[in-house]
UniProtKB/TrEMBL annotation:
PROSITE patterns in the cross-refs: CHCR (PS50236), ZF_RING_2 (PS50089)
Alphabetic keyword roster: Membrane, Metal-binding, Protein transport, Transferase, Transport, Ubl conjugation pathway, Vacuole, Zinc, Zinc-finger
Region (Disordered): 581-681
Assembly and interaction partners: Component of the homotypic vacuole fusion and vacuole protein sorting (HOPS) complex. Component of the class C core vacuole/endosome tethering (CORVET) complex.
EC id: 2.3.2.27
GO MF: protein-macromolecule adaptor activity; ubiquitin protein ligase activity; zinc ion binding
Keyword Magnesium set for record: no
Broad enzyme group: transferase
Protein name from the UniProt record: E3 ubiquitin-protein ligase PEP5
Amino acid sequence: MSAQSQPAALSAPAWRQFTFFDLAPIRDIHDLGSPPEIFQVHIHGSVYQLNREFEIVRSWLAHAGGRVTHMVERKGILITLGEEDTARHPFLKVWDLEHTDNKTGLPALLRSTKVQSGNRPHPVSTIALSATLAYLAIGLGDGTVLLYRHLDQSIFSGSTSLSALPKPRVVHESAGEPITGLGFREPGEDSPNMYLFIVTLNRVLAYHASGKGSGGQPTVVSELGCGLGCAAMDGNSGDMVVARDEAIYVCGIDSRGSSFAYEGKKVAVHTHRNYMIIISPPIAPSVTAASATVRNLAAKSKSTDNAEITKLTVFDLENHFVAYTGTFTTGIREVFSVFGQIYALANDGSLSCLEEKPTSAKLDMLYRKSLFLTALNVAKTQGLDPGEVADVQRRFGDHLYAKADYDGAVQQYLKTIGHVQPSYIIRKFLDAQRIHNLVTYLQELHSLGRANSDHTTLLLNTYTKLKDVSRLDAFIKRESARATDELPFDLDTAIRVCRQAGYFEHASYLAKKYERHEDYLRIQIEDAGNYKDALSYLRRLGTEAAESNLARYGRAMLNNLPYETTQLLIDICTSLEPLMFDDDEPKGEPAALTRQPSTSGGPSYLSYLALNRNAAPGSSSATASDQGPVAPSSASTTTVKPGASSRQLSVAHEQELSRTATPPPPTPTITSASPVKPTVHSVKRPSPRLFFAHFVDHLDCFVSFLETVALKRWGQTVDAIANGSVEVESDSNALEEAERQDQVSVWNTLLELYLAPGPTTAERQANQDKALRVLRSEGGRIPYDPTHALILCSTCGFTQGLVPLWERAGMHEDILRFWMDEHRSSAESSEESAASEEVVRALRLYGPTHPSLYALVLRFLTSEPALLRKHEEDVKDVLREVEERGVMQPMEVVRVLGRNNVVGVGIVRSWLARVITEGRQAVNVDQQLIDSYRGETQAKLKQVQELSDPDRPRVFHVTQCAVCQGQLDLPSVHFMCGHSYHQRCLGEHETECPNCARAHGLIREIRQNNERLVDQHDVFLQEVREGGFSALAAGFGRGAMNLARLEDAVV
């Protein structure tokens, strides 16, 4: 080959060239000036094992009298092929590098056998061993391929025979076509089978070595073969790489794949990770060569001789560029990969290492040349972590952004999500002209679940500013991430932004779909004004959810749908079953009720609501005044099951509902004790008091609500007994005290509403009649607070209601004074009145239990001549009762009757005569008692004086013992009290008369108690307040006034 034709043959491909490797010579560790001497010993049949410093660890003679031609190692097992003088055929030997022979200390020889195909010997051209040691393929120079199956089982079977190897199978024969390359394609995800690539000078074949369909003839995958050493397996893809003079071909198991144009002669190829190393034959350098590397070498060389050089090129087949190009003046004998590096052994024995530059240095080199796409491919090929790859993509995006390629930039930025702060990218697209790119980025940010509330706000604002309803629909209606079951955006933010932008449909869709009940109702009521839909939604939520939301929106709902909302509140407070709803209920105006708008009066719950008691009857809302109050609705036809979820209810709610109140059925009446049907339900009824404040402007609906709740929940009504009673269901889970308080609150408020001034006299009278029926209810049938009712009736001037309240409170004197005042009022207006008869009737009713009322009525009946003439007999009856019951002293009666000139003596003559006669008799009896007490006192004093005189003898005439009643004899004991006893009948040391001791002891105890009470002045004063003069006299009697005792005075 001439020097002029060689450069043309070595023309490089139109690939970019980089210097990603540095050539570093390997020095001998013992002589840094010389390379390590290795690999030359194979020609003597020995094998040398080297360490990382290329020092010989151990060596042994593998093939005596011959040479080693091929070696391959897997999992600590070394297979050598070599020639020996003792045999014509090559020898195959298997060595165990991890176990040594006990005698020699060298690796154990496991197997040794000849390699032959036929009678004539043929040299071994190539060898291939699978990663699992299961298959071994040997290619011969005559075109034969021998395949050893289950080699691993044979090696580790435990057999001590060196020749115990499986019989090889001839899988290919091609006369005249030597085998130039072999390689196994290991099973993987693409194919679970093992394949063997066979390369000859003219063809590339694939043999199915294992799996279904194995054992057939090899199939031709390429009609282009290569020379010896120019075929190698690509470890990443599992394909066979074939290097020819015109190009590089990649062959798969089915057909030839991609090819790479690279003209020039090639003597060897080698693969290392994703690189392919090509060694070109020696050429003479020339300044006219097509290769820049050769030209530079020729220009730098000072010698004029035609010394040949060998070119080594490292290709990156995945990224399509040249990673290194170098020349060797001494030629290259072998290229091999070990310890993760590429080594080149020159013909002169020098060893060089191709040290790959760090990935960061490679990327910097590519950044400087603005080759960002290549840098991205390199980063992925080198297996960088996602964060480092994202940094390359960010740089690529910045580069495109600087070139005003915003669409391309945003595509690169999309791949950095999760690694680059979104704010870095969002700031680049905030300009109005780039808002579409911003939308693209934000959408991807949300789809990957990396967005926060600010990102959601920004994206929705861009949709609304662009008025892109379709993309807004697609965004909010997208499903949640399947892996995490989470929304790809912040729900609260999405609802808020849609509300602020006026997209109420989208906001309500999100709130409804994801069961944000409060947000949905806020949108429908506060924003969209869709009160009917909100009401239907509330009914579907169930009692508990509807209760909490009505507490917030009840007033707004009543202002717009007073009757429907009132009916819902009634159902919530009375039903123990899930709420009912009817999709097919016809629209129409609700039936008018008996109540009209009214205002309040009195300090009660309406006072709490801060109502204007003087408001006009028409002060309520126009809607309420036009339509009238609501009544209990009839039963519905659709029932929400207790177990139905809110999501199911939302699906059922997709159709618009129209619910209006229905005419009320005839109001049933109840007895004082309505039968109660106990039931147990899971629905808890709320307290009606929670909703009182919402009816501030709808008092007509308020009355209907209270009356219906009282009827349905407790069976209480102001109507008279009619055709039966109402069955009510009791909640066994309800607290009795809480229910009682609710009943009192409901009827207190109803009473206040009844007493409020009505628009017409007839209505006012009807309301007052209801109030009277409430106040006159017997047996606690209608519970209310009497004190509150009394204050209310007094404030509203409802005097008719005061009498039953006074009766209930036991204020009988107030009842009499009320009728007395009524009599005086009618007398002043010259009207006939039966108030005096009511006074007499009340006295007859309450007088027997309250005698003090007789004096009050007596004073009243004798206050006027006309009144006395009318009730002369009643006055006599009163005097008789006073006399019999001793209510008043005669002098008090005389003073009462004589205070004016109304009562004559003729009326009371008989009474006075009787009283005087009885008084005289009482005086005579008292005088006789006084004389008797004086006589007894004188006798006692005389007896005391006699007993106290020691000089006065005492004669005892008693002849019987006071204990045994026997004849008294000596010795005997006589006591001054007059009792005598046998001495034997008395106890030892007895110094007191036994008969009188008990009486004397009682008297002493009484006197001791009285003496203790002398200093307890508060007790004495309390007795005087309660008993008057009698208590004072008793105090004198027991010595409470600190007077000296009688015996002290006598002494």
